[in-house]
Design a protein that fits this description.
heterodimer, A: about 525 residues, Rossmann fold, elongated, B: about 325 residues, mainly alpha, 2 domains, about 0% strand
Chain lengths: ~525, ~325
């Protein structure tokens, strides 16, 4: 069955370098001496639920999902919690985060696993299960899957389930190997996803440079309950971008700020589907993932790695060459250089790429933009990168937004083709950060202004009330004085003077009290 | 580098500029074949002046000399300028024009990538307004090199026999002199300036430019939009006028093969810096340049109008770019 393909505009064809590791079957990586498990591995943070010194079992939940966009975190193996402390995270900024440090006892003792009968549970219960099993998007975004599985209002069905097996970044082969070796498990995960979304059809998009993976997935598609098609898509970066793949397979363009379900389509990575199957049908939470270790190494490969394994230990298995000068997490197009090699593998880690000057040469000096338009031709989002560059450079952030800078997915196609070798994506990151910062500042200023206005209004109201009271007291004092004067008649001038004095003193006391009250208010 | 992307395509501004220079070679070869090696002297003078001006301005603006002198953009400007000028123009005119293009039109606006006007065309317009007589000193075919050199260096005065009008000029003058009874076929049949399609010899130079231009297109130095829009519009407009009044208006083929049409189609209007950047903008720009150029040729005061048309349209580019942006991904259906 030949599916109709839609084509997004733009894209590039960098050298794939997949052969380096595509032939290596998935191998388990050995237990490291220490595991460092960050509590924040998805959009939201998890709260620790273990104490230092406590013994944990493999698969035991060590962090609870906190907030709507978090997922639980689990102990990757059995052992003792040695510390719960701030450690450097695998993040381009080199920022730190709370991590649970576990010393494995080497016994790999599991908690009691609790597989579920998928059809017997409600969708709500299944989503809770996925959240508590720590299932997040394993394609790299690490967005919690249970959130993406929420159906739109009134249980409407999501027409199309797109499964992302494109793996368009150069060098990375973990999804390729997973599809070749565990197609059946992926298919069962897809069936669960389709069931949860009430999908009418499933489209599995795989780049046509992975014939073995396509064949393996095709074999499983025949037995699927929901109409399932494996669609080879052209090898063109960034086909594996969620929005780009949905566009290619369905012709639906999802703009920035909108989500798939608004258009009756939802997308999951093949590795995520595999994790869903494992979480529900085996009762095993996400404690490991397949990671491609490649680049400037002697033995590139694909390893099933326990989350929390330090990158250093993992890289050592592949024997990095001596001229390795930095380590990238992710591919060469969207990955980032690690701040240090002690950071752990996390759920979003699909590739550890040893870099060297030979493989990834330093950028030549930046030249001025000559408006050749190659960036615009390569941009899959149909932006005008040279205009955005110009605006970002001149700090004209209003124009940046007018030219849709937040639609930029930072795929790097523009910078890849630029003859002036301008690091365009860096300019967009800068502009986006500045705009976000300004919006935060504006929001804070607005809140402060509202507070100030409310307070001023309150003070004015109180002052008016007090002035009224004061006027009333003064009137009373005058009245009293008049009464006294009338009662005494012209008989005793001293008495009259005394009564007037008394009334005046009373009025003065009242004024002072009011002034003190005002002072206290402030 | 610590931020993505970590790889880029091996390409540079210099590589682009070198390709443009290489693509000019067939046209230059035909030029030399028909009109002698004088043009090479002109190119050399323009290049030397452009590089000197570039170096002086880079130094004044405290820019890295080696990086920018090597980018080849000054040479491209110089070559295009020399090729659009009459090859017998005196050396000081070519040198002054070249300096004007680099110093005033390019660097005073911010240097590479910043100039709103095409430097070669701006210099051409400045000189044809300032020195109209010298700017019409075109060589007759077969002029010996030493005579050409003497004219360029100013050591000899031009005898009338050695220079000739270009085909566009000859047609224009022929029609004017013949008055009401003049007709295009009669003029074309009369003069030695005309060849099979356009100007004698010039048609082959034009073919050389087209060949180089097609190679640039194949090399994806520019997209098809501008040349196709420009040539199609030019042909369409010329055909329209020719059909309406064949006595006063030459055919499309004559216009395409004469003057700077082919140079403009592939080397001038395709200048990325001053041209439009969107697909629709490029189509508009190409067609508009063709229209203005034709109107100047047919009804204006100058034999060829390409340079003026290019400058006039350069002014519109910011507006064209702004209004022809393609819809961003997903923003098509609102």
């Amino acid at each position: 069955m030949k599916a109709q393909l839609f084509r997004f505009r733009g894209g590039i064809e960098p050298e794939a370098h997949k052969d380096a590791s595509a032939g290596a079957p998935i191998a388990p990586s050995p237990l490291p001496p220490l595991l460092v498990v960050p509590l924040r591995q998805a959009a939201g943070t998890s709260a620790p639920r273990v104490r230092v010194g406590e013994h944990v079992l493999k698969g035991e939940r060590i962090g609870n999902a906190e907030g709507p966009f978090a997922a639980a975190v689990h102990a990757p193996t059995s052992g003792t919690v040695r510390a719960i402390e701030m450690r450097t995270l695998p993040h381009p900024s080199g920022m730190g985060g709370l991590c649970v440090v576990i010393e494995p006892d080497g016994e790999e003792r599991w908690i009691e696993r609790d597989p579920v009968e998928v059809r017997a549970l409600s969708a709500e219960r299944l989503r809770e299960r996925l959240r508590d099993a720590g299932v997040v998007g394993l394609g790299g975004a690490a967005f919690p899957s249970h959130v993406k599985l929420r159906r739109g209002g009134a249980g409407e069905c999501c027409g199309t389930l797109v499964i992302n097996g494109a793996e368009c970044e150069p060098w990375i082969t973990c999804d390729d190997r997973l599809m070749r070796e565990r197609a059946n498990e992926i298919a069962r995960g897809i069936a669960i996803l389709a069931h949860l979304l009430q999908a009418r059809r499933v489209l599995i998009g795989i780049e046509d440079n992975k014939p073995e993976a396509i064949a393996a997935m095709c074999d499983t598609a025949a037995g699927a309950e929901v109409l399932t098609r494996v669609v080879p898509v052209p090898t063109l970066y960034p086909t594996g971008g969620e929005k780009q793949l949905i566009d290619i397979l369905t012709g639906i363009e999802i703009p920035y700020g909108k989500l798939g379900p608004d258009f009756g389509v939802q997308c999951f990575n093949v590795a995520t589907a595999h994790a869903v199957w494992r979480a529900l049908e085996l009762g095993e939470p996400v404690i490991s993932r397949v990671v491609t270790v490649t680049g400037n190494v002697e033995r590139p490969g694909n390893l099933e790695v326990l989350l929390g394994t330090p990158v250093r230990e993992l890289l050592a298995l592949a024997a990095p060459r001596p001229d390795t000068d930095r380590i990238l997490m992710g591919g060469p197009m969207m990955g980032f250089a690690l701040p240090e090699d002690s950071v752990p593998v996390v759920k979003a880690t699909n590739c550890i790429l040893a870099a060297s000057e030979r493989l990834f040469p330093a950028h030549p000096p930046e030249m001025p933009c000559v408006r050749c338009g190659r960036c615009a031709a390569a941009c899959p989002e149909r932006l005008q990168p040279f205009d955005l560059y110009w605006f970002a450079r001149s700090r004209n952030f209003g124009k940046c937004q007018e030219y849709s800078i937040f639609d930029c997915i930072e795929c790097g196609c523009c910078a890849y083709v630029c003859p002036s070798q301008i690091r365009l994506v860096d300019y967009y990151r800068y502009a986006k950060a500045e705009i976000r910062e300004r919006e935060r500042n504006t929001a804070a200023a607005d809140a402060a202004r509202r507070r100030f206005e409310l307070r001023t209004a309150r003070l004015e109201r109180d002052a008016a009330l007090k002035a009224e009271r004061l006027a009333a007291a003064a009137a009373r004092a005058r009245e009293a004085a008049a009464r006294l004067a009338a009662a005494a008649g012209a008989s005793a001038p001293e008495q009259e003077v005394g009564a007037v004095k008394k009334a005046l003193v009373e009025a003065a006391v009242e004024r002072v009290r009011a002034a003190q009250e005002r002072a206290q208010e402030r | 580098m610590f931020t993505s992307p970590h790889i880029t395509r091996a390409t540079s501004v210099r590589a682009l500029m070198v390709k443009v220079l290489v693509a000019l070679v067939p046209g230059i070869a035909a030029y030399v074949w028909f009109f002698g090696a004088g043009i090479l002297v002109s190119i050399a003078i323009a290049s030397a002046a452009a590089l000197a001006g570039e170096a002086a301005m880079l130094r004044a603006r405290a820019k890295p000399l080696g990086l920018f002198l090597g980018d080849g953009s000054a040479l491209v400007t110089a070559w295009l300028l020399a090729l659009s000028f009459p090859p017998l123009a005196p050396w000081w005119l070519v040198a002054a024009a070249s300096l004007f293009a680099i110093v005033v039109v390019k660097h005073l606006y911010g240097g590479l990538g910043q100039n709103p006007f095409n430097p070669a065309m701006a210099a051409f317009c400045a000189m044809i307004v300032a020195f109209p007589a010298l700017m019409s000193q075109w060589p007759a075919p077969g002029l010996p090199f030493d005579v050409q050199l003497g004219l360029i260096l100013g050591t000899s005065r031009p005898p009338d026999a050695v220079t000739a009008a270009t085909a566009l000029d000859a047609l224009r003058t022929g029609l004017r002199e013949a008055g009401a009874k003049g007709s295009v076929p009669a003029v074309l049949a009369s003069g030695p300036a005309f060849g099979a399609f356009g100007g004698h010899g010039w048609e082959w130079v034009s073919a050389g430019y087209a060949l180089g231009g097609l190679w640039l297109l194949q090399q994806r130095v520019f997209t098809w939009h501008v040349p196709v829009a420009f040539l199609a519009a030019f042909a369409l407009i010329a055909t329209g006028f020719h059909l309406a009044d064949p006595v006063r208006h030459a055919s499309a083929l004559f216009h395409l093969a004469s003057g700077a049409t082919m140079l403009a189609a592939f080397f001038i209007t395709t200048d990325p810096v001053t041209g439009s950047t969107t697909a629709r903008g490029k189509l508009i720009l190409g067609a508009a340049v063709a229209l203005i150029a034709y109107l100047i040729r047919a009804f204006g005061a100058y034999p060829d109008g390409i340079a003026f048309a290019v400058l006039l349209m350069d002014m519109w580019v910011p507006l064209i770019d702004r209004t022809t942006r393609p819809p961003v991904f997903g923003h098509t259906r609102k």
